[in-house]
Amino acid sequence: MKKALAALLFCFVPSSAGFPQIDVQVTATAIPIDPADPAHRQFGRLRYLAGWQLDSRQRDFGGYSALWVKGDRFMALADNGHYLRFRMTKPGVIEQPRFSELPAFPAYEGHKGDRDSESMTVGPNGDIWVGFEYRNAILRYAPDLTMLHSLAWPPAMKKWSLNSGAEAMVRLEGGRFVIFSEGNAVAPHVHDSLMFPGDPTSTRNTPFHFGYRPPRGYAPTDAAQLPDGNIIVLHRRFGIWDGFSAALAIVDPADIKPGATVEGEHIAELRPPLNIDNMEGISVVQEGGKTMLWLISDDNQVPVERTLLLKFELEGVKK
Q1: Higher pLDDT pick, 252 / 2
Q2: Burial class (CB in 10 A: 0-12, 13-18, 19+), 276
């Protein structure tokens, strides 16, 4: 049935669905990272450069779980298959915002889980891979997101939790893919993770399992590759009394081997009362020979949470 569905999708996938764009605005309000001390900008190897709270009256705004940045172009993917594209040619000025929807999903049974898009990575030719929880699927789209190229339900992900599956995914230079599960433990505080030798939507690319041990109390939410080839992993923690915290760690891909347990270098932690929310998306860019990290939060489209877009310089990255 899955093969039949895939064949049908290739034949009948519609173009990316649009949303009403008349008078669509996204505003960006500058925020300090430390409200009590705006001059406080250093956190481990991170130096805070700028940040904004994003807001919009567009009904589909928010819920962003993955982020891609290239130059002044941004794309934020929400956990319901919707996405926002915009340009930021000047700090804090959002231009040309466009809301749209992915052209195809792992299933069409009418459930939110049919389109629970949680992770995203972009290839050198612009192809976009998206990881879906609940259905534990990976879909590859055309660069303009108007067509589905391929899809798979990897058997290695079949038993992953419905709501804690492919939370973080990164394509490495050379074509390998790493996928971190959010909540599938293979040992205490060790998350089941996968290394694919190539495109995970191709059945010939069989992955191997390894374990990932995040900073204590945290779960991985996104990942990206640094200019030196290492992987930077974003993590989230939630506490009833102190709310959301974020942590970042760097993993050497050379340590990822079948059956190994990998623990990255913990480089920074961002905790309340800092301006932090449910940080779920990360993107890496180069500016003037420096490595920049962009982080975005998932507000779950509820009033008590916020969509924050934060920019840091990552210090000490070898070129």
Answers
A1: 252
A2: buried
Instruction: Match 């705004």 to its residue by tokens.
Output: 61
CA distance 93 to 247: 28
Query: What is the pLDDT at residue 317?
Result: 82
Average pLDDT of 197-222? 96
Residue, of 23 and 39, whose pLDDT is higher:
39
pLDDT at 11 over 90: no
**DSSP letters spanning 59-124:** TT---EEEEEEETTEEEEEETTSEEEEEEEEETTEEEEEEEEE-S--S--SS-GGGG-EEEEEE-T
DSSP string, 284-305: EEEETTEEEEEEEE--TT-TTS
Residues pairing with 213 in the sheet:
263
Question: Measured between alpha carbons, how far is 250 from 237 in angstroms, rounded to an integer?
Answer: 17
Selection from 208, 202, 205, 207 nearest residue 6 by Cα: 202
Give strand pairing partners of 218: none
Three-class SS state of 189: coil
Does the global pTM surpass 0.90?
A: yes
Distances (CA, A) of 231 to 63, 142, 255: 24, 25, 11
Candidates 135, 119, 144, 181; CA nearest to 5 is: 135
Determine the Cα–Cα distance for residues 130 and 77; give it in Å rounded to an integer: 9
pLDDT at 213 over 50: yes
Half-sphere exposure of 135 (CA within 13 A, CB side): 26
CA–CA separation, 4 and 299 (whole Å): 36
| Closest to 33 in 3D by CA, of 46, 16, 18, 15 | 46
Angstrom distance (rounded) from CA 108 to CA 95: 33
pLDDT of residue 168: 96
Measured distance CA(168)–CA(161) in Å, rounded = 14
* DSSP bridge partners of 86: 74
DSSP assignment of 174-187 equals TS-EEEEEEEEEEE
